[in-house]
Amino acid sequence: MSGNREFTKLDDLARRVGYFLLNFGTLEYLLLTFLEKHLTPTEYERVSGLHFKDKVIRLRDVLETAGLGNLTEDEQLKLFEDIESVRTLRNHLAHGQLSLDTAGKGELKLNVTLPKEVDQRFETDIQRVDVSELQRGLDTLALITEQFYGLAGFSAPVDLPIHDRG
Question: pTM of the full predicted structure?
């Protein structure tokens, strides 16, 4: 019976990782849609080929110079902090390796660990992503995506789940 529970946890983690990665793609699409509306065609062509982080820098420039959006300065700061946190999580998930670690009491703990840190997975100072951290990332990503639907000029879909609460 215990093995089935662990398989369920593994399946749950894999499902949440999938939701996160797919929804991050939606966020990038919405970012590109916003930039396309506010940049010249030449500038958009250049920016669209950049890394996500660089597209976000360009977004910040557009928001600052054009004064677009109804976000206060504090809300913009929070938005960019949240974008950075989900970008970092996305990179960790995209390049990470699933590991099952013993939590000390015979209990297995699911983590996503970077390959370069796999031999150190029992150390306390390496970055891990567990199910609860992944869920927090999904929740943050959902909020950001909803904001970006508005920035891109769309209304958020009602019938399409932006994230999964388990």
Answer: 0.77
Closest CA to 27 of 90, 76, 74: 90
pLDDT tens track for 34-46: 999 999 999 999 9
How far apart (Å, rounded) are the C-alpha atoms in residues 28 and 57?
13
Crossing angle for the helix pair 2-38 and 131-151, to the nearest 10 degrees? 20
Q: How many domains does the chain have?
A: 1
Asked if residue 118 belongs to a domain, the reply is no
Give the integer Cα–Cα distance in Å for 92 and 87.
9
Residue 77 lies in a domain: yes
